[in-house]
């Protein structure tokens, strides 16, 4: 990412784990990150992959081109397949011209639901921010304490913040857009807007956002979900999460890529500390994913399925879907030698 | 497309066949069109598909969301599968906010190769036009005569034109971008720029561009190819096409979505009028696709494979790729009841 930037080019996918993850893993999971709201996710930048198949054959999945209608899209089948179909050994990515400027602001909201309502309104007004993140106040308190930051004043009447970034090549336009977006947030009881004035303030805000996951995990929110719903349904999802918390006796904090409808939900239960092996937590998570499904969403927006989410696949996919996926797995890997047992069971 | 525009929304895919094609066919072929250079192709807008499988099961391939890392990407496997895997019965598309303004200009070039060199330079300078089309003069002469248009002066010292569109929400920025792009084209011996002043002039230019395919076909250019290469390799492809014409005794006109590296090549041979059944034309087209492959490209950018391009799949795909595609086809459609014989043979 940094090395292409030096050449005036831009590779937008920017997962929060960017300090520790590798691009091969990003392809396996179809990773996202804050810029996805304007620029899309990993799958939107992968043009061609060299793959070692389970039978030892080496193929290129496509061609080094921006458009391709030549046979089945094996490239997109590999992206997000979590290492179950083949081993990626070379990657051809699309790069964009690097936008010259970006502006960042933080807007506090008295109500988490109102904050999530403002998200859709920004798009309906014709803006496409390059970042539109939501962080619930509990998460912001925890991360601010962890990194000893006072960048964001944490007051009792605030429930959530939106972090809003715009980017482009014309600073006047960006300033206008930011002002108009700020005005718009006031209609949703948004409070006083904090504009990040310089590179250092921007870096501080992004650092806070990036370290939320780690911070809430270490402070007891050990169960991690990666729900995604249509953007306009975010308020219903958030309301539902809070109700489920009351019903099942857990506390949840919500944060994530609100502009994509991709909400990370971290759960703190007084006694149950992981999502599997407990009938009570399984029931709670099934209820959560049934809600997500009823809103048109699904189990994972950018984290993948692996082992942890596997028990919930039946909620969002009919058996006919899972059978198709199994048959694709068998076609690629008849002896089940690659990452067996991930995403679904074969039997 | 028009019905979402009325609501201030934007569905960018805009194939030249838009008067006669259907959206189901667009999904089957992963269609493109002039706006793909900025906005991507059909695959970039399809979020979820209801599909009737060959076994009679009805599935939804994904979810109605902007990000999805939940199992294999069956949605993208269906897009571009040319009706061989299932029958699409419902479609969920992503829409964008409609850009408020667009500007259009036409730039003549003394050399086809120089015109194609200018294409890459525009992106390297940081611009992302919403349309960047190349039309060789022979094609423009034919279509101008067919529709009886004098919109574009056709002079003997011009070999090709670029049609360049920019869009966005700020007219001042668009004017600046257009001026800078126009200046840049002069470095590639671009001639006097023609700015389309009003909606009527824009419509006239786009009409000329859209009707090129039909015009050249009826005037003898009956063999149609849909090559795609990395954008920077366009000059080499164009030079190669002309050399192959001399070698195999045909005349070719080039036009298409130069900004994507997607070049339509129409071939006029004095005696051979279609691409199959003639060993001589088969040899010529194999040589063309070998060139395309050597440049990192492939057989079809947006038209698909069907029956006509099937004999050339071995040039761009190893047998291991084709075997994988066949195994996917068998997994979906073991009795080969859907569009049998398209893309590849099963046996």
Percent in helix of chain A = 25-40%
Distance from N terminus to C terminus of chain A (CA atoms, Å) equals 41 Å
Q: Main sheet of chain A?
A: 7 strands, antiparallel
Total of domains of chain A: 3
Subunit organisation of the chains: homodimer
CATH topology of the largest domain in chain A: Alpha-Beta Plaits
Largest inter-chain contact set? A-B, 87 and 87 residues
- Which CATH first-tier class of the largest domain in chain A would you pick? Alpha Beta
List the helices and strands and how they pair.
The structure is a homodimer of 347-residue chains.
Chain A: H1 2-5, E1 9-10, H2 23-29, H3 36-39, E2 46-52, E3 58-60, H4 74-78, E4 87-93, E5 96-97, E6 101-109, H5 112-124, E7 131-136, H6 137-146, E8 160-168, H7 171-186, E9 194-195, H8 199-210, H9 212-218, E10 223-228, H10 234-248, E11 251-257, E12 262-268, H11 279-294, H12 313-316, H13 319-332
Helix pairs in contact in A: 5-10, 6-9, 10-11
Describe, in plain words, how this protein is organized in 3D.
- Chain A contains 13 helices and twelve strands.
- In chain A, the strands form three sheets. In chain A, strands 9-6-8-7-11-12-10 form a seven-stranded antiparallel sheet, with helices on both faces.
- Chain A folds into three domains: 2-97, 2-Layer Sandwich (Uridine Diphospho-n-acetylenolpyruvylglucosamine Reductase, domain 3); 101-213, Alpha-Beta Plaits (2-Layer Sandwich); 221-316, Alpha-Beta Plaits (2-Layer Sandwich).
- The mean pLDDT of chain A is 95.
- Chain A starts with a helix and ends in a 15-residue tail after the last helix.
- Chain A has 347 residues and is α+β, with helices and mostly antiparallel strands.
- In chain A, a hairpin with a 4-residue loop joins strand 11 (251-257) and strand 12 (262-268).
- At the A-B interface, strand 3, helix 4, strand 5 and helix 13 of A face strand 3, helix 4, strand 5 and helix 13 of B.
């Amino acid at each position: 990412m940094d090395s292409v930037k030096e050449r005036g080019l831009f590779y937008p996918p920017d997962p929060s784990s960017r300090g520790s993850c590798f691009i091969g893993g990003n392809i396996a999971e179809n990773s996202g990150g804050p810029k996805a709201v304007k620029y899309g996710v990993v799958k939107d930048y992968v043009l061609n992959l060299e793959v070692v198949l389970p039978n030892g054959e080496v193929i290129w999945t496509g061609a080094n081109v921006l458009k391709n209608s030549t046979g089945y899209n094996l490239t997109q089948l590999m992206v997000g397949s979590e290492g179950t179909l083949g081993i990626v050994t070379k990657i051809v990515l699309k790069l964009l011209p690097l936008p010259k400027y970006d502006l960042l602001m933080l807007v506090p909201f008295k109500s988490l639901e109102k904050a999530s309502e403002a998200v859709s309104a920004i798009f309906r007004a014709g803006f496409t921010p390059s970042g539109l993140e939501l962080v619930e106040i509990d998460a912001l308190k925890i991360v601010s304490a962890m990194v000893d930051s006072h960048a964001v004043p944490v007051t009792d009447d605030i429930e959530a913040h939106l972090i809003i970034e715009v980017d482009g090549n014309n600073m006047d336009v960006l300033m206008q857009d930011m002002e108009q977006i700020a005005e718009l947030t006031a209609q949703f009881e948004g409070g006083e807007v904090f504009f990040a004035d310089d590179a250092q303030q921007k870096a501080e805000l992004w650092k806070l956002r990036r370290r939320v996951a780690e911070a809430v995990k270490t402070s007891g929110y050990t169960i991690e979900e990666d729900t995604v719903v249509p953007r306009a349904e975010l308020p219903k999802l958030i309301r539902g999460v809070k109700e489920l918390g009351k019903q099942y006796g857990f506390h949840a904090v919500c944060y994530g890529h609100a502009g994509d409808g991709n909400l990370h939900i971290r759960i703190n239960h007084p006694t149950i500390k992981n999502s599997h092996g407990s009938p009570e937590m399984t029931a709670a998570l099934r209820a959560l994913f049934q809600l997500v499904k009823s809103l048109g969403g699904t189990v994972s927006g950018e984290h993948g399925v692996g082992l942890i989410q596997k028990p919930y696949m039946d909620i969002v996919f009919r058996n006919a879907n899972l059978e198709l996926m199994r048959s694709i797995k068998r076609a690629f890997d008849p002896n089940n030698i690659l990452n067996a047992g991930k995403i679904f069971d074969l039997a």
